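Hi L.,

As promised, MARVEL domain-containing protein:
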Amino acid sequence: MDSQYNVDSTEKTTTTTSSSGDVGLDKIYMKSIDSILKIAEMVLSLIIFICVTSHPGYFTIGGGWVQFVSISCLITVLILWIFFMLRIIYKLPGPWMLIILIYYVVYCVFFLISFLVCAIQAGNNPQPGGLIAGAVFCVIILVVLGADTFFQFRKWQDSGSSFATRSTTSSGGAATTTTTHTTYETRTQY
């Protein structure tokens, strides 16, 4: 009695990579677009603050709002920049990519309102120099914040509501664990 055996084999491999960087200086982040945009936001916020404060009677023309927006943006972006640069943000619990995305959307709206305040008040004042400069820098920071908001949105999409994995890899203390699970399935046909 002759019998013929056909063997079908299926192999399924699953690879899981997780990265948990230690707290420390991230030299790669310092040179990234994200870091450069945050530095530009801090500098522009300080310039807007100085422009509006230099106008005589700034507080009575809505300058207090523009000052609040520019200084609060400067402080929070500085904190975020330090957290990313030192990799502290990856150790904090919470949906940080979503929180940062919401922060940037809110500050885009705040700077749009600040632009309107500066532009409207510049038309109503005999000495509009500081307000015109403030309005121009508000438009510039809106462009920078818009670009950063776009990149934050892309990072939020890539993170998949999880912040456990990093979007950039760095050397110097970052531990990477790779787990490979292979399953074999063999089926014999008669």
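Confidence is low (pLDDT under 50) at residues 15-20, 162-181.

Thanks again for sending the construct details.

K.
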